[in-house]
Write a structure and sequence with these properties.
The chain is mostly helical and 167 residues long. 54% of the residues lie in helices and 0% in strands. Helix 2 runs antiparallel to helix 3. It is elongated.
Length: 167
C-alpha cells in the first residue's frame, strides 16, 4: 500500500488555521508563540525545497509542540463553562485546539516521509562524534599498486623466497 503524498503547504496551512482558531478564547500566549514559531519553520521548509535541515527542524518542532500542547491543555483547560457570555466561542476554540493536537501525529508522519524523500537518513545525527561503518570513501590497501623492486624494511620475509615464512 502506497502512502498518499500530502503537500507540506497543506500541513502548514491546516495547523495555522487550527492554531488561530484555538487561540481565540482560552489558551495563553505561550501556546500561540510555540505553535506559530514551529509553523514559521514550516514556511522555511516550504521555501527551501531541497533543505533537509528545515524539514528536520519542522518535524522536531511538531513533536515538541505535541508535548507542550498536552501540558497547556492540562493546565489551562477551563473547568467552569457555565458562563453564558462567550461560552460557544470557548467551546469552539477548545475543539479546534484539540483537533490540531489530534492531527499532529499524522502530520509528523507525513513530514517524516518528506524528510526521507529529501535525502534525510533514518538515523538522526545530533552532532556528537560517533563511529561509522560506512567505508565507501576509503581506498583499500589491498588494491594499491606497488613497484616490484621496493624493499620492505620492516618485513624482511617479503624480500625472501616465496613460500618461506618466519615464525
Amino acid at each position: 500500500m502506497e502512502i498518499p503524498a500530502i503537500n507540506l503547504k497543506a500541513i502548514v496551512l491546516v495547523h495555522w488555521l487550527l492554531t488561530v482558531w484555538g487561540c481565540m478564547a482560552w489558551l495563553p500566549m505561550s501556546f500561540a508563540w510555540g505553535n506559530f514559531t514551529v509553523l514559521a519553520v514550516g514556511v522555511w521548509a516550504i521555501a527551501q525545497r531541497d533543505s533537509v535541515d528545515a524539514v528536520l527542524m519542522f518535524l522536531i518542532g511538531m513533536i515538541v509542540t505535541i508535548l507542550t500542547d498536552i501540558i497547556h491543555f492540562g493546565i489551562f483547560y477551563p473547568t467552569d463553562l457555565s458562563i453564558e457570555r462567550g461560552r460557544d466561542t470557548v467551546r469552539f476554540s477548545i475543539g479546534m485546539a484539540i483537533l490540531s493536537l489530534l492531527l499532529k501525529p499524522a502530520s509528523c508522519f507525513f513530514v517524516y516521509q518528506m524528510y526521507h524523500e529529501r535525502g534525510g537518513d533514518y538515523n538522526i545525527n545530533f552532532g556528537f562524534p560517533s563511529v561509522s561503518r560506512n567505508r565507501d570513501a576509503y581506498q583499500s590497501i589491498d588494491q594499491q599498486n606497488e613497484p616490484s623492486n621496493v624493499q620492505h624494511p620492516f618485513n624482511p620475509a617479503q624480500d625472501s623466497k616465496p613460500g618461506v615464512g618466519t615464525y
